[in-house]
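Appendix C reproduces, verbatim, an entry submitted by the partner laboratory led by Prof. M.T., so that reviewers can inspect both the input and the predicted structure.
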Amino acid sequence: MVSEIGHGLWGMGGWSGSDDKTSLATMQVSLEKGCNFFDSAWAYGSGHSDQLLGKLIKNNPKAKIIAASKIPPKNNQWPAASKDKLQEVFPRQHVFEYTEKILEGIGINCLDVLQFHVWDDTWTEDDEWKQTITDLKVKKLIRYFGLSINRWEPWNGMQAIQTGLVDAVQVIYNIFDQAPEDQLFPLCEKMDVGVIARVPLDEGGLSGQLTDETHFPKADWRAKYFGPQNLHPTVVRANALMELLPDSMSLPEMALRFILSNQEVSTTIVGMRTLDHLHENVGVSDGLGLPGELIAQLRLHRWDRKIAPWSD
């Protein structure tokens, strides 16, 4: 059982403005507020977020913390593409090597959820990944296995799910990105696969803080994502959503409540780097959701996008 608000650690390991002391304090309060699912990845600072998660676990030996992390693609290509071969991305030795690195970084013997950080369904019939995952479970190095599905390709993982080896999928799902509802979510329900909804606030596009003058440091991934081709369209769409806000509700709250109103979502991982973010987001987990009429209005704001150089 996972908390419906999970804690995403990308911002603590790979975004500008993060501070370890603040990050750890926020994670501690998050745990105390009832969050038990923490999502990390080796790519978040070359293992840095794994180490932060390890400190949280060490500081709370009696807490039931569900630790999730991800193995980076060996060829360092995000997203995966059909031209890439499985042996170039997740060969057996690479998967075992990084599983051990993640376990060492967190300081545990068995990881609750191990995920491939990218995926392409052309690899589904390759027996190597199937045997690798089976062996990791037999050796009790991992409990469950998941896929992190490429941005704006919710269909690209459905074949793998049907093998029965996938226990969870992590997919972008928010007010803008509603496509997972079409085919992926029904399949996950049929196959009893957990759904981790990531990017609930569209990397900040649904934060209510962006303007046409917003700029991020060059080293920050968001500087590319919210470049000239994406910033203005995002601001326009976010401003349109502001007109639908119920009294005393922020845009991030409405965005999170939209996701949690979908019963097929197991948990949504929010990047909470400060206590202010934490208190605002965790408070949404109150079972209230959103009125059906408002959800129907929000469905009209679906934004189907295609992979672009700035979105990698």
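Residues 93 and 215 are 40 Å apart (CA to CA). Additional entries are available on request from the coordinating office.
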